[in-house]
Amino acid sequence: MTDDLDAETLAFAHRMFDLARSGGAEELSGYVDAGLPVNMTNDKGDTLLILAAYHAHPETVAALLARGADHTRSNDRGQTALAAAVFRRDADAVRALLDAGADPAHGSPSAVETARFFDLPEMLTLLTSH
């Protein structure tokens, strides 16, 4: 599919993913509000939400969730935004995802499996007490 996109469009898409990685919540929100697909994915299946969670940007996670980002989506490796936030020990992002209805048992590895594998008892408690 990327063969069908011109260089300018690809550069714009890369910039949007970079905003998710860097926590550019306000700017990214503006683009989503203007019509950017909130569930846009890269070549690895990572959504904007997964990238924001993995890079520990809870404000960006919350902004994307408020705009309808699908917290059930997994990347090509089966990872979810919730598992990414758990791995990064980002309690604020974990809470935002749980409040939005994210399932701690969804994904492979799931958020619960991630917390157990990496011995993150505070994350496991957060997941099971929500």
UniProtKB/TrEMBL annotation:
<dbReference type="InterPro" id="IPR036770">
    <property type="entry name" value="Ankyrin_rpt-contain_sf"/>
</dbReference>
<dbReference type="GO" id="GO:0085020">
    <property type="term" value="P:protein K6-linked ubiquitination"/>
</dbReference>
<feature type="repeat" description="ANK">
    <location>
        <begin position="44"/>
        <end position="76"/>
    </location>
</feature>
<feature type="repeat" description="ANK">
    <location>
        <begin position="77"/>
        <end position="103"/>
    </location>
</feature>
<dbReference type="GO" id="GO:0004842">
    <property type="term" value="F:ubiquitin-protein transferase activity"/>
</dbReference>
<keyword id="KW-0677">Repeat</keyword>
<keyword id="KW-0040">ANK repeat</keyword>
<dbReference type="InterPro" id="IPR002110">
    <property type="entry name" value="Ankyrin_rpt"/>
</dbReference>
<dbReference type="Pfam" id="PF12796">
    <property type="entry name" value="Ank_2"/>
</dbReference>
<protein>
    <submittedName>
        <fullName>Uncharacterized protein</fullName>
    </submittedName>
</protein>
